[in-house]
Request: fold
Amino acid sequence: MNEKDVVRKVLDLETTEEIPITSKQYNQILEIQQTILEMLSADKQIIDALNRLCNLAESLLPNSVASIMIKSEKDALLNVLAAPSIPEIGHNALACLKPGPGGGSCGNAVFKNEPQYVQDTFQDDRWSELRHIAYDFNLCSCWSMPVKDKNGEAIGSFALSSFEHRTPSLFHKKLLETAASIVSIALNKKDTENRIKLFYSAMQNATEPMLITNHYNNIIEVNSAFEKCYGVKAEDLLGKNPSTVSSGKHNKEFYENMWNEINANSHWTGEIINKHTNGTEVTQWMSISSTNNSVGDDEHNYLAIFSDLTELKQSQEKVEYMAYHDTLTKLYNKTHLEYILKEDKEHCLMMMNINNFSYINTNYGFSVGDKLLIKLAELLNYKFGNDNIYRINSDEFAILYDINVNIEKNIAQIKNYFYNTSLDIDGVSIKVTFCYGASYGNENILRNTSIALKQAKRNGKNHSYIYNPETDSINDDHRAAFIESNATLYKALEQDNIVPYFQGIRDNKTGEITKFEVLARIEQDEKIISPYYFLEPAELSGLLPEITKTIIDKSFKIMSKNDYTFSINITEDDLSRNYLKHLLAKKVKEYNIDPKRVILEILEGVSASGKNNQTEQLNILKERGFSIAIDDFGTEYSNFERILDLEIDYLKIDAKYIKDIHKNKKSYEIAKAIAFFAKNAGIPCIAEFVHTEEVQDIILELEIDYSQGFYFSEPSSKPINI
Reply:
């Protein structure tokens, strides 16, 4: 079997199950959209916004790079516009890409004007002309979405290229679609900015409204474009002041500043609002130049040229609207709420989370879910709001009140209304309930309301909770420590300071250490940092898979120099990312490691949940020779039936039952029951946290097969058999 056949065989094992978009993922996409639109609204540089868009998209697909390519109007070839994570050599390699059937994912996306999802660039015919680029830069898969102009024609692409063979989930397809739409908006805004810059150079174009006044600023000439623009004939304007077409929108100070500029520099340009004879306002860019008249004395003529900004202003207002409004419900969004809350004014803020919204999306589809959100927005605004309703994220709304509101009464009114109201969405009758959180004040009110809402959700569905500053405030020391740990983790990943440590596992029959568990540590500034300080930030930041990948690579390299069996901790995030089959196959080949030496430790909760995709991955890995161990067994699930279904190779008793087994009868009985079950099921059992001779004596009494703990082995940077 050649190398290509091996790759194809590995790919055939990958699952293509369509996993629904979660609320968290939907919020991540909304946050990206909000961030970039806010940058565009704030007149940030277009390229800065596009680079930021690429970086944010990459953060949602680890081990990938994002790129934006645009088609040249001159030769219709594609070139890189933004790709901050791709080196210059990569930009050059992709330059002048011709759209076509063999032009890679981006070339096909533009050529066919439809999304292209390539799982294997090394084999797919769509990459036939760019195969060398795929090999040179290890681009294993590439997904591309066409960027379209206002006529729906493809003018470029937004792509995510991965260093792993992957197929996109519904979440990543939505991410690509949203990013491509944002690029279209950004390019339109760029065109708008370019047009504004060109106005001055176009002032001599006779198609633009133009007038000339004398030294006394009385009109002496206008062109036909001016007549058409304002609906007035030249003979009705001659000898009159230009204020004839004034809208009255500008005050005395505006005109004083304008004339001061003209007198000082003989020139002024700026935006001005005038008025058509029918009363319609006309927004224009006006350029006034002062010139000597034909007599040559001190008197001047003034030339004013107008360029219509109405369409451009509408485009700008649209971007600003999108930055402060939710695109689905048209309500104000979180960005607008944060802007309002910056005012030094006390408010009462109430947030509402829809109960079981993910269930509605899953069972009725996102179309029904979206229509439900629109209906709720209309009802909340009509029944309980007055332009003070906000959509915070996918399934959360907020209502902002004055400080004197009786929030308990308002919550009761909303509860009662929806208790007695069924919503009909596409023939589906839906009863909606919420959890409610609220807080008062003018500092940290959004954060405090979020804390209250979380507490309400913990109390159960349809509950409410009012923030109490005396009991609910977050411990500042804990928050500071968390932020520091998060920074340490990112620094460690960036500087490659995450390293494997090895703790021996004693065979209680032979009395020798025969296996090792691989543990993650951070080596930084001559200190060894325990996972206790960085696992929580890693989990919340979605970085657990990056730690796992690093530990797999480094431990395999070390263990390639001996014959020990060793175990590696695998998280639910690792299984959800669906990369383990490919990565482990690659590493056992790279370091010549027999899969039978490797034990994959999964938490009890993973085995108990029994998710089809995760179970299938574990079964495939077992077929390839890897062993499976349940870690921390007895923590909370204790699903014995699932253990037998998965054909587990090892079972590790949770440390909390071992550390005090010599003095806690409950711990003793639980450990005894687990050991008895494991023995009867023929599953080798491992006791964790064996720290004293007294504890070890009980382990031997219960005939537990293996012992792990400081009594026999402390974690070390090398596997040491004591």
The domain at 200-313 is CATH 3.30.450.20 (Beta-Lactamase). DSSP finds 27 helices and 27 strands in the chain. The chain has four domains: 3-196, 200-313, 326-472, 481-708.
